[in-house]
Amino acid sequence: MPVINSIAALEPEMRKWRRWLHRNPELEFDLPKTAGFVADKLRSFGVDEIHEGIAQTGLVAIIEGRGNGPTIGLRADMDALPIQEETGAAHASETPGKMHACGHDGHTTMLLGAAKYLSETRNFSGRVALIFQPAEEFGGGGQVMVQEGIMDRFDIAQVYGIHNAPNSEAGTIHLTDGALLAAVDEFNFTIKGVGGHGAMPHDTKDPIVAALGLGQALQTVVSRNHRATDDLVLSVTQIHSGSANNVIPAEAKLSGTVRTFDPDVRAMAERRIRAIGDGIAATFDVEVALFYDRGYPPTINDAEKARFAAQVARDMLGADKVNAEATREMGAEDFSYMLEARPGAYVFLGTGPGAALHHPEFDFNDAIAPIGASFFARLVETAQPPTG
């Protein structure tokens, strides 16, 4: 069961789709051109239903198979990032300050390729729900689509997604059962003191000294408050304060991110961050306000569906091209909300050497698009063979 010949033959057309998407990046929920492009392609393929305007610019398309059966969901994200592109490619972004630096243009293209094949062959029972999602990078479009009821509305029984993986061997698939990607939380501290002359610190309540103490103390959450065998990352990523060398400012801001897998570790980290902030306020006689935002939950593959996806990949690519015990990563994904709502699996597809994700020189490897499209199609045909 290799890469599907008709999808392989579609590669030049898929390349054109992907490069159009790359030249026309859009952000978050504001994806009118992207969603319009996708809808136009789906209509040309002859899908049975197209439901637009979900989570503002998301859409779900339905393809009916042969005979009765359940509905399987396939998801691709469509949004880009607020990054100035530096690839120098002929198909580079035509919108300053926006680019597809995470390969969502490739993800969308792979699902479109699968959609074209599935709508032509219909070699499956039940239905396929093609989920084209906005706002993965910022805004949690996956959560919004779930909250707007797509799983019940379209009776989706299981759901699958693919993310490209630069610097993994091209055409290899990596996944694991259980947690694959981390939960992501953010903390934002505002420290208010009393400003004054840099030569007279005794007349001030210095928020910078407090911010430095806070940044140092937060490191003890990982080093002293959790078991070393439990995965936890806490990174202070921003400190902002001051405007002149001879002025002690009245305010400082400190922000960062927390990545975890275990709910108890996640709760402990938030509890300790809050307590440390309170302690810094008392220690330095300043006001400390914390905004703590719980973001995407961990991306957890259903064990049975992960094993199923791995076997489909082995049958298609060969056992040597599939790693079903991949190391979990501290990145995050809002496909996690879909996996909370329905069993399924999320996999990484290697794209070969190149710039990392979210880098201004990143570009999706068009050569692997037929592999991803074929994998989507094989998932459907294997999970739901035709009955009529």
Instruction: Provide the helix percentage.
Output: 25-40%
| SSE sequence, one letter per element | HHHEEEHEHHEEEEEHHEEEHEEHEHEH
Q: Major sheet, described briefly? A: 8 strands, mixed
- Looking at CATH, the homologous superfamily of the largest domain is Zn peptidases
Radius of gyration: 24 Å
**Bulk shape:** elongated
User: What is the residue-averaged pLDDT?
Assistant: 97
What is the number of beta strands?
16
Q: What amount of the residues lies in strands? A: 25-35%
Query: CA-to-CA gap between the ends?
Result: 22 Å
CATH architecture of the largest domain: 3-Layer(aba) Sandwich
Q: How many helices? A: 12
* Spatial strand sequence of the major β-sheet: 1-2-4-3-5-16-6-15
